[in-house]
Amino acid sequence: MQLSIDHTSATPPYEQVRSQIAAQARNGTLPTGLKLPTVRALAEELGLAANTVARAYRELESDGVVETHGRRGTLIAATGDTAHRLAAAAAAEYAARARSLGISRDDALAAVDGALGVAYQS
Asked: Which 8-state DSSP code applies to residue 11?
């Protein structure tokens, strides 16, 4: 697993760890079932506090990218289905909320397009 931390970046280190692991899981560099290093081991390797790596792992688990199995450790989950399912659920919630607010379809789509533009700038 190749991770690098840019200590001069405005992006917090936990987010750098989270996004790099998520991207490597999505593109198959980190295959499903791969055991990740322990929090302490990865923190030491990257020169970070253990709490920083723990936060990244918690967020990855919340996003369905990894699964934690106690003594067996933290493993890469089958993210494709989970990520798409979570995105579809979020889209359905947004669509229902936009409709209840009386926002037109075109305005709702424009809002999503703007939000995605901001989210994918980095």
From this structure: S
Those residues whose C-beta lies under 8 Å from the C-beta of residue 4, and which sit 6 or more positions away, are: 16, 20
**Other C-beta atoms lying within 10 Å of the C-beta of residue 34:** 14
pLDDT averaged over 10-residue windows placed end to end, the chain, 122 residues:
94 97 89 93 97 97 90 82 70 90 95 89 70
The answer to whether residue 33 is domain-embedded is yes
The pairing of strands 74-76 and 66-68 is antiparallel
pTM score, whole prediction: 0.66
Cα–Cα distance for residue pair 8/30, rounded to 1 Å:
26
Phi-psi region of 7 (alpha: psi -120 to 50; beta: other; left: phi over 0): alpha
Q: Which residue has the tokens 């967020």?
A: 59
The answer on 63 and 23 residing in a single domain is: yes
The residues, ordered by sequence, that sit 6+ positions from 83 with a Cβ below 8 Å of its Cβ are 26, 63, 64, 65
